[in-house]
Amino acid sequence: MPSKSEQPQYTRVLLTFARNSLIRDMTFRANFIIECIASLSWTMMNLGFYLLIFSQIDERRIADWQQYEFFAFIATTWIVNSVVQAFFMPNAQEFSELIRTGNLDFALLKPIDTQFLISLQKMDWSSLSNFVAGGVLLVFSLGQLAVDPAHPLTVTPILAGMYVFYLLCGIAIMYSLMVSLAATSIWLGRNQTLYDFWFYITNFSRYPMEIYNGRFGAPLQWFFTFIIPVLIVVNVPARIVAQPLRPETSIGTWLALFAIAATAGCLMGSRWIFTRALLSYRSASS
Question: 95-117 pLDDT, tens per residue?
Fold first, then answer.
């Protein structure tokens, strides 16, 4: 891990990565704009799908989430996924190619943390279009909840700070899972199914955990909360901002506390898997 004296250097390196990626994207501006439009089109179709569902429901409620609370949940999903896809997914997808071509040797020789370099050297700025869309939908949804005559929502600075904190926790959990999956390329040689497996896992995080009930749903809820904690990635920050966690709700309080422990555990676990995988790496020149 970088020392305090090295942190400004890592910040400069990160900013250099971001600038170079932006320059690369802007070199082909038409392609960049098309990617943004395609990404936004998917989110709008996704939103239209849920609008259609709510138009067919008399109570306008899915599980314990009313319409605009659910839209705040969807907005949080877009924000988390857009950050992961913009900053981590392009690098994770290329990790197996670095191993196959032997270019991982050059990354190992550089005077910088290998995981930092491999995780952040490329960024897909077009994916952040969904971040903007998620922010707009979140503000609109919270505005509608604030004027709800029955239970008006008041977003305080503390509430907003907690939302951002747990949003970062969710992003860290997703990053850890992605790094762990990418690191398996060293053992498997080539992991081309990374994106498919990632899509299957993250699909569970796109819905409120209340829907996972019953004979088959309860085991899924337990597994994807405590073993692979993807359900808390969106559920905790969305609950905080749309359905504020209250001290008298023990499951909410414990879920928030567990999210912090899960984030720390995932970060340490992914670091351990990554370093163990590097020990198994055989240089292309050997």
Answer: 877 887 778 888 888 888 999 99
